[in-house]
Amino acid sequence: MCIAACGVVLTVDQGRIIGIRGDRDHPISKGYACFKGLQAVDAHHGASRQLHTLQRAADGAMQRVGTDAALDDIAARLAAIIARDGPDAVALFRGTAAFHNSTAFRMHGEFLRALGSSSLYTTLTIDQSAKYIAAGRLGSWHAGQVHVDDTEVLLVFGCNPLVSHSAGGMLVSDPTRRLKAARARGLKIIVVDPRQTETAHHADIFLQPLPGQDHVIAAGLLRLILESSRHDAAFCAQHVEGVEALRRAVDPFTPEEVAKRAGIDAGALRAAADMFALASRRGAVITGTGTSMAPRSNLAEHLIQCLDVVCGHFKRAGEPMPHHDPLQPPVTWHADVVAPTRPWDKLPPSRICGVGHLYGEKLTATLADEILTPGPGQIKALIVDGANIANSVPDKARMLAALRSLELLVVIDPHLSTTAEEAHYVFSPKLQYERDDLPLTLGKSLYPDAWTQFAPAAIAPPAGSDVIDDWQVFFALARRLGLKMQYGGQPLALDRLPSSEELLALGLEKATVTLEAIKQSPGAVWDRRDPPATVQPARPQAGRFAVAPPDVVAELAEVAAQSPPEPATDDMAKAAFHLIVRRMRDVNGSIGMETESIRQRNPYNPLHMNPADLVRLGLAAGQRVHIRAQYGEIVAIVKLDATLRGGVVSMSHNWGRADNEPASYERHGASTNLLVRNDRVFESINAMPRMSAIPVTTQAF
């Protein structure tokens, strides 16, 4: 349910989980497990879990229906839509819960390919898609970053990995203990965040800027490093194009100008540049949703990654790599650049926002308009697996309108979420301890070392339930539609229902190990017998980083030409704030939001405010307030948070129900996505909307 994939030990009695703890023998998590993962008892056996297939009746109410009858009707409706409008009229949304379900993850792609549809949407293009844009126009280092265990300085922008566990390859599992150990051996930390997060408490230098200014700060750091020639000139000469053009482009961003725009101290910016640049090659930068959900996120991500590039903060030839991921084909890692490919330039623009696919996916921010906009390619049917897109995708009002307009909406979810409430059919899936599974794998290790684990089903689904594996929905529809499916690179027979274990074995066609070998490993964790590989020298035809492509230089010039924000003086401005995104410790996106033990601790998503701002507005903790933005308004309850910069408020965004009624706030919270319009402020290339640094006013309710 989380990228950290911490190992756990369950205590099971008479088919029920009665206890859960961290697995001290797990080679990565070593006994660590956080609160959200320890709620397995409530997640599997709690009253909020749906245990039967549901169908929307004529009066709008949800009623139980036989699973086979539901699949028969869905298949017939899909066939009619495809015959009339073509396969692209059928779309699939893969959510975070489905990413952590390896059989479902594989079956999604195979189902769409067999259907002939290119309409795949996932959370990746609405979460941190700026990372994909940076890789596409900057390039990437084949061997990857220096790991936190070997780093001398870590620069963190808009990321709080001690809570989110999301800094892949850096601080994922047991992040606090790992960070403290790195600090004890001498690691220096620089954090840039409008809130003094749990991670920022460990910082040597903490920059607390106005929200949405990460691109300005990164430009200022680059200027200081390049101006003083503290970059790695030899590395740049061999691997980088455009250093001089980048130097010219960031020239307007002097420390004083950055201080004025970002609301930080110029001396602190200089100190951060000194600390980062003087770390030689042993440094790294990480970013998170604070950067990727704010305005100019693509520019910010590009410039922040350029900091690593100009300083040469990458693994070099002869340095060790993590052990090989046994679920992936063998890879020889090289000390060279994977050249920028700009794949979006090779695709025709879509009918929405003029953008197209991003690495095989359509863009989530365009989904509502792809449903609502008539014409060729209009989506008429949508299957949602493991996501609550009515809450998690910006412009909630438009997304709800889109979902209600669909001819067919099918949702796979263990709870009757906001999205599921709009569905024609809801399937209740098995949860993680009721199914056979393998952990998420993405090629280059997400962890300090490679590992895998066969996790067999520990308990059976509840007696009398209709829960099924996610993949079975797609398999059953493919059989009813007469599709020709593949799995693991070979034809998949549809006349016999396979087991999940069979599919896991088939899905390892490119792995260096069989499922049987993984199952036989001591402690059910793959025993890495081979020595780790080392980084090999650069290849003859290696690429070069492009630090100053024309569109980046043009956007920098546009920013430089804009006037910095003026201080607020009038009465309305006294109530003006910037609303930023916030991770919650107890949930992963919307996963766990309906679990009883989690909701007891988090009945709603409060509006976090600095105490001085409360005093200034005459408000008090626990008081209800109106939050108004240009495109909508919500109600929230105030909670004190002295870690926030003054003039900044913070709120988690995956909450609320469809009605947005103030009376339901204490039960369901409020959705900040009602404050956002996807078609007003968005990034080029990936259509990423403004989900953070949102201008709002906050007044007593």
Describe the structure.
- The structure is a single chain.
- The protein has 701 residues and is α/β, with parallel strands linked by helices.
- It has three domains: 51-126 and 358-524, Rossmann fold, CATH 3.40.50; 130-323 and 544-558, Dimethylsulfoxide Reductase, domain 2 (3-Layer(aba) Sandwich), CATH 3.40.228.10; 563-700, Barwin-like endoglucanases, CATH 2.40.40.
- Helices cover 30% and strands 15% of the residues.
- The protein contains 26 helices and 25 strands.
- Strands 4-3-16-15-14-5-6 form a seven-stranded mixed sheet.
- Strand 1 (8-13) and strand 2 (16-22) form a beta hairpin.
- Helix 2 (67-85) packs across helix 19 (470-481), helix 6 crosses helix 15 (297-311) and helix 9 (214-227) packs across helix 13.
- The radius of gyration is 25 Å and the shape is globular.
- The two termini are 37 Å apart.
Features:
701 residues, 7-stranded mixed beta sheet, Rossmann fold, alpha/beta, 15% strand, 3 domains, 6-stranded mixed barrel, globular, Barwin-like endoglucanases, Dimethylsulfoxide Reductase, domain 2
Derived from helix and strand composition plus strand pairing, the structural class reads: alpha/beta
First and last CA, distance: 37 Å
Strand fraction band? 5-15%
The percent range for helix content is 25-40%
> Average pLDDT, to the nearest integer?
92
CATH class of the largest domain: Alpha Beta
Q: In angstroms, what is the radius of gyration? A: 25 Å
Overall tally of domains: 3
How many helical stretches?
26
Q: How would you summarize what this structure contains?
A:
The protein is built from 26 helices and 25 strands.
